Amino acid sequence: MADTWLIVGLGNPGPRYEATRHNVGQMVMDELAARRREAFRAHKANARVVETWLRPGAAKLVLAKLNCFMNVSGGPVASLARFYGVDAGRVVVVHDELDIPYDTIKLKIGGGHGGHNGVRDIAKALGTPDFPRVRVGIGRPVGRQDPADWVLDPFGSVERQTLPILISDAADAVEFLVDEGIVAAQQRFHAPRA
C-alpha cells in the first residue's frame, strides 16, 4: 500500500474548541473531505476518518481527525499508521503554527516541534520526527496574552474574513505535497502572495 497517505488534522475535541486557532488542522480535514463529498466515520484508533483518493487513479488518502486532546495525539496517529500500513514519511500532519504569521502556510519534513505538544507527541509515538508537516500560520498574540490562551481562542473577526481562503490554501498544499512532493510544494506555497 505504498500509495496510501495518512493526513492528520490536529485539534481538540468538542464544540468548545471547534472554531479555535488550535483546531485549524481539523478545519483543513473538513475542507478536504467536503471537496470529495465524503463524511467522517468512527475508527477504532480513537479517531474519525475518511478513506478517499487524491483523484481517481491516484494516491489513496486517509483523512483523520482525532477524538483526543492535542497533547496526546501520538497514540491515535501511530495506531492509524499501523492500521493502514503507512510509514512516517507518508503521515502528513496539518497543524497551527504560532511562529508563522497568520494567512501563511509553510511545509517541512522533520525538525523540532517548536513547542507544539501535538507534534511532539506524534514524533515520540512514531519514533521519529521525520514526517511531513503542513504548518498553518496563526501568528502570535499582540500584547501580553499568553500564547496558550491565544491558540484556544476563536479566530478574530478580521481573521474570519480570510479564514476560508487560508483553509482552502492549506488543503491545496496537502494535495500538492502528495502529488508533487515536498520540494515542489515548498516552492509553490512558500512564495510571497501577489
Automatic annotation (TrEMBL):
The record marks 96 as: Stabilizes the basic form of H active site to accept a proton. InterPro entries: Pept_tRNA_hydro, Pept_tRNA_hydro_CS, Pept_tRNA_hydro_sf. Monomer. It is an enzyme of class 3 (hydrolase). It catalyses: an N-acyl-L-alpha-aminoacyl-tRNA + H2O = an N-acyl-L-amino acid + a tRNA + H(+). This is Peptidyl-tRNA hydrolase. Its EC number is 3.1.1.29. The keyword Lyase does not apply. TRNA binds at residues 17, 69, 71, 117. The active site is at 22 (proton acceptor).
